[in-house]
Design a protein that fits this description.
Blueprint lengths: L2 H9 L5 H12 L7 H14 L3 E5 L5 H9 L4 E6 L2 H14 L5 E5 L15 E6 L6 H8 L3 E9 L17 H18 L4 E6 L5 E6 L13
Parallel strand pairs: 1-2, 1-4, 2-3, 4-5
Antiparallel strand pairs: 5-7, 6-7
Length: 223
């Protein structure tokens, strides 16, 4: 933890016992959730945006969904998780949080599931935090559910520094994932239908604002 992060941490209120329990559970069971610096920045951005409806791809144990609804009074979230054990943990934590009336969790593979299972509406924000090598596919499938002027957020854009390592120096099992993530980053940063920024916060947060004046034909750039 940097000196600046420590300084900020000392100025902020302690998280609820449930949030602290979730953070400990995730660390003990090697379940990836946003780090404190990343989630605090993300929630701050959402407070500025004030979305009413958020679609989340990748619930894990429900940590980010609970942090979002606890910070934004009017928001409702639909979140999707494919891992059965994580889904069951998320259901339990969401029920314990008391926010189960504002968080709808769906068990399924977001890339394979029927989109009719998702409540039909225009979402103000889409949060992608699932398989990193599939970000472009998630984006292409679900961005149409985001209203013009809405925002698409993606976490782990730096993959703990792996995007800075030459391809040949990466473990072979990770090369395709990191290559796909870097290609997605190049693609979306150059996409004319979005205003996109990449923040060096946490593990890298990408913010893509959908322009209001586009009909959104297919974009093939950045390949």
């Amino acid at each position: 933890m940097s000196e600046y992060t420590t300084y900020i941490s000392n100025l902020t209120e302690a998280e609820s016992p449930l949030i602290q329990e979730m953070e400990n559970f995730a660390e003990e069971n090697r379940i990836p959730i946003m780090d404190r610096n990343g989630i605090d920045t993300f929630v701050g951005l959402l407070r500025i945006q004030q979305p009413k409806f958020i679609l989340e791809i990748g619930s894990a144990i429900g940590y980010s969904a609970i942090r979002m609804v606890s910070s934004i009074k009017e928001v409702s979230i639909v979140t999707i998780e494919r891992d059965k054990e994580r889904y069951e943990s998320a259901v339990e934590y969401i029920e314990r949080s008391g926010y189960n009336d504002r968080i709808t969790i769906i068990e399924g593979d977001a890339l394979l599931m029927d989109e009719d299972l998702i409540p039909a509406r225009q979402y103000d924000a889409l949060f992608i935090d699932a398989a990193k090598g599939q970000y472009k596919r998630f984006f292409e499938k679900y961005s149409k559910h985001v209203a013009p002027g809405g925002v698409i957020y993606c976490d782990n854009m730096f993959m703990h520094g792996a995007v800075l390592i030459p391809d040949e120096e990466l473990p072979k099992r990770n090369r395709t994932m990191i290559r796909n993530l870097k290609e997605f980053t190049t693609w979306i940063m150059g996409h004319p239908q979005y205003e996109t920024s990449l923040l060096p916060v946490g593990d890298g947060i990408l913010i893509a604002v959908k322009k209001r004046d586009w009909g959104f034909p297919a974009f093939e750039g950045g390949k």
